[in-house]
Design a protein that fits this description.
By secondary structure, the protein is α/β, with parallel strands linked by helices. It has helices spanning 17-33, 60-66, 78-81, 84-91, 105-116, 131-145, 163-168, 189-202, and strands at 37-38, 49-53, 72-77, 96-98, 120-123, 149-155, 174-177. Strands 1-7-6-2-5-3-4 form a 7-stranded mixed sheet, sandwiched between helices.
Length: 204
């Protein structure tokens, strides 16, 4: 189910059988195998929202997906989309591939469209994709959409030498959510980034 679908599913009541099954399996993996704990999500029940979280490992997006009953569409490095099995999984959340080697304007425009459709966009300002570009993109998306920013923080987890080793290693991660941040459409980029990163750090 590609992210370009005309009417993409959002809340759990709209999900396909495939999406429900994958969400259930993912939730079981992070809760019972990884021993993860998370606080109740503060993402609004409806409407656009930007979920901004620190980034420590490949487990982070799994925790965010498992702890929510709305679809979270992520900005994902292109190399993950180049793996056929991974691409299929990412398409269930309508995620967006991003090229690391240049400023990917196309990806930002797709991200804006997700917010215009009143859905949830997940961003990791601290790592993964080039930090400065993602931070600038976050500020731009806030100004363009007016969507609230929901801070989240993942702790007690680290990245192993490979993604597979990280998935297999039990770490008991902890996910915390903060109060949504609301900015004026004309807010300065430094204000948006400063408040967002501070809110994430406060949850540590």
């Amino acid at each position: 189910m590609p992210h370009a679908a005309a009417s993409p599913a959002d809340s759990i009541g709209e999900w396909s059988l495939t999406q429900r099954t994958l969400h259930g399996l993912l939730s079981a993996y992070v809760r019972f195998y990884q021993g993860a704990h998370w606080e109740a999500s503060t993402i609004p029940a409806e409407g656009a929202a930007i979920l901004a979280c620190n980034h420590l490992s490949v487990l982070d997006p799994l925790l965010l997906v498992a702890s929510n009953t709305r679809v979270v569409s992520f900005l994902v490095a292109q190399e993950y989309y180049d793996k056929p099995w991974m691409r299929w999984l990412l398409e269930q959340t309508y995620s967006i591939p991003v090229r690391r080697d240049r400023r990917d304007v196309r990806a930002l425009l797709q991200a804006r469209r997700i917010l215009e459709e009143g859905r949830v966009l997940g961003i990791f300002p601290e790592g993964g994709i080039n930090r400065s570009k993602i931070q600038k993109g976050l500020a731009w998306l806030v100004r363009e959409s007016g969507a609230p920013v929901v801070p989240a923080h993942v702790g007690s987890v680290s990245q192993a030498s490979s993604d597979l080793q990280t998935w297999l290693h039990r770490q008991r991660p902890l996910l915390r959510y903060g109060v949504p941040l609301h900015f004026h459409r004309g807010a300065d980029a430094a204000e948006v980034l400063g408040a967002t990163m501070s809110a994430i750090a406060t949850l540590a």
